[in-house]
Design brief:
mainly alpha; 16 helices
Length: 362
Amino acid sequence: MNVKQMFNIAGAYVGVVVGAGFASGQEILQFFTYFGWWGTLGGIVAGLLFAWFGYQLLQLGSGMNASSHKQAIHLISGKYLGWLLDIIITFFLFGVAGIMLAGGGAVLNQQFGVPVTIGSIIILVLTILTLLLNMEKMVSVISIFTPFLLIAVLIITIGAYFTMDKDFATLASFAKPDKAATSSWIFGAFLYVSYNLAATAPILITMGGKISYDKRTLGMGGMMGGLTLGLLVLIIHLGMLSHLDQLTGIDLPTLYLANQQFPWLAPILSIIILGMIFNTAVGMLYTFTSRMVSSESPKFKYALIASGILAYVSSLFGFSKLVGTVYPIMGYLGFLLMGATIFAWLRKKSRLTSFSNEKLEY
């Protein structure tokens, strides 16, 4: 097992899951922190689930030699369920594009006072221009923001512990389960992992198939990445819990905490989050549109503009509302993918057991 390769895989897994919604704190607020101390247990459960599924998906991809998104889904889900999941994931990409436009508008409004609708239009125009002009280098440069985003969020959330003016027992009384995205903390943990896997499982499986690392290194890298994600969820959750009485109705909790504690860091964090939002919007809108119309087709640019306008219309529902609606719906459907993964794992174990029994009989 190669330790360096294991860290590379873990970093890639974290990078796939961590995005603008994660960094803004809104997802963690709705799926964990609104449940108070119970959300802490939810974070631990989510970390263990991320670790187990990361391990299995990367090993499955290696065993299948998966080479594409579509192939990966069909390999673990079968012909008919695979077709259904492919359609579901495609439209989820459209939903995430709308959420990114709403998130961009929310950041520009909260930090710089730009009207939300105008902010969303700015992000949309930049996204479409980038795709039409094929500015791939710009997108790759923006992806470099990820480690800086994590550092900034960790500074803010850890700093929140040292500026809290109430004890945790008092702050826990401000928990608002009725505002959470789900009915219970345990279901919230499963749903959070489920919708993230719906978007990342095809990437992890394909990664496992294309990278020539040994299966154990891939699996352990996935486990380490999953545990790291769980740790990040807990750190951000506890940081927000330390100021929970101030966060109700705030679209971007981590940005709010930055303004309260480190005003000099808030504009930097805003720009980093905008970079992540822009990067994600470009990827989601391109993937959705290219699934509908071939990127080589003369109609692609018109389909791209139409998709962008529809995504903008969906963004008008608001960032917090979209996060609390689209992600849970995708989470429910993502349970199908989790089930298919578990079934593939059980089938693999069954084959190994049968093979061992045959050898014993022989």
